[in-house]
TrEMBL record:
Gene3D superfamilies: Hotdog Thioesterase. This is Uncharacterized protein (TIGR00369 family). The keyword Hydrolase applies. Residues 61-135 form the Thioesterase domain. InterPro entries: HotDog_dom_sf, PAAI_dom, Thioestr_dom. The keyword Hydrolase applies. Keywords: Hydrolase.
């Protein structure tokens, strides 16, 4: 695990950070366009449950590639940012592989941290359709920004 992720040594601090990231996800305006919920069960792991419908389709009646990218990027991003407690990460590159078309219904994006400990992190993600079949996978590179997590709407504890 990255040595810069101070909360990882403190289980209570880690759980606080994960819940704050989940609130941050929910507060992002783009996520008003998607029926989705983020959960971070542990360091370096993120899972997002999406429900897709015809609003996400291209002209041929399946989910448009922008939806695939959003779901995979978010899952990989939050897996990586779960290891960084002070700064917001930014996607600097993302490679995407489509393996099957997605139709309307539930989809799960599973993200996993692969490497990186200081400034640059690598994480991957996969999309699973309602039958548990992989529909796409991707790998992203994420870099620390100058944006403090504590300054972002939704990250702070609402209490």
């Amino acid at each position: 695990m990255p040595r810069d992720a101070g909360a990882q040594a403190d289980p209570v601090g880690a759980q606080t950070h994960y819940r704050a990231l989940e609130r941050l996800y929910g507060a992002a305006p783009i996520n008003q366009l998607f029926d989705s919920v983020l959960e971070i069960p542990s360091a370096g792991i993120a899972r997002i449950r999406f429900t897709l419908d015809e609003r996400h389709f291209h002209a041929a009646g399946a989910v448009h590639g922008t939806g695939y990218f959003k779901m995979l990027d978010d899952a990989a991003f939050y897996a990586a940012n779960s290891l960084v407690t002070d700064r917001f990460l930014l996607t600097t590159a993302f490679n995407l592989l489509f393996t099957r078309p997605l139709k309307a219904g539930p989809v799960v994006a599973e993200g996993r941290w692969i490497s990186g400990q200081r400034r640059v992190f690598v994480a991957d993600a996969r999309l699973l359709d309602s039958d548990g079949e992989e529909a796409a996978r991707g790998t992203g590179t994420f870099m620390r920004s100058r944006i403090a997590l504590a300054d972002l709407p939704g990250y702070a504890d609402p209490r």
